[in-house]
Amino acid sequence: MALEMRERCERCETAELPPDAQARICSYECTFCVPCTEAMRGICPNCGGELVPRPRRV
To answer: What is the mean pLDDT of each run of 10 residues along the chain (58 residues)?
Structure first.
């Protein structure tokens, strides 16, 4: 099963996140840009889970 690779940050909605971009993701596939992740201290606001680097697709 493949991860859903969302194209925008769920917090700011302005950061574009193409498949090769740095992004952070939780176990429920909530996706955020790096600046938003840092502002949230690496914790997903939706589920409380840890935000980790999203694998890249090239």
So the answer is: 85 88 93 96 96 86
Question: Which two three-digit tokens encode residue 40?
Answer: 């949230």
Beta bridge partners of 8: 16
Question: Which has the closest alpha carbon to 17: 50, 55, 45?
Answer: 55
Residue 34, classed as helix, strand or coil, is: helix
User: What is the pTM assigned to this prediction?
Assistant: 0.88
Cβ atoms of residues 10 and 30 within 8 Å: yes
Which residues are within 8 A (CB) of 30 and not within 5 positions of it... i.e. 6 or more apart?
10, 44, 46, 47, 49, 51
- DSSP-assigned letter for residue 13: S
Q: How far apart are CA 50 and CA 18, in angstroms?
A: 21
Residue with the two structure tokens 């498949």? 19
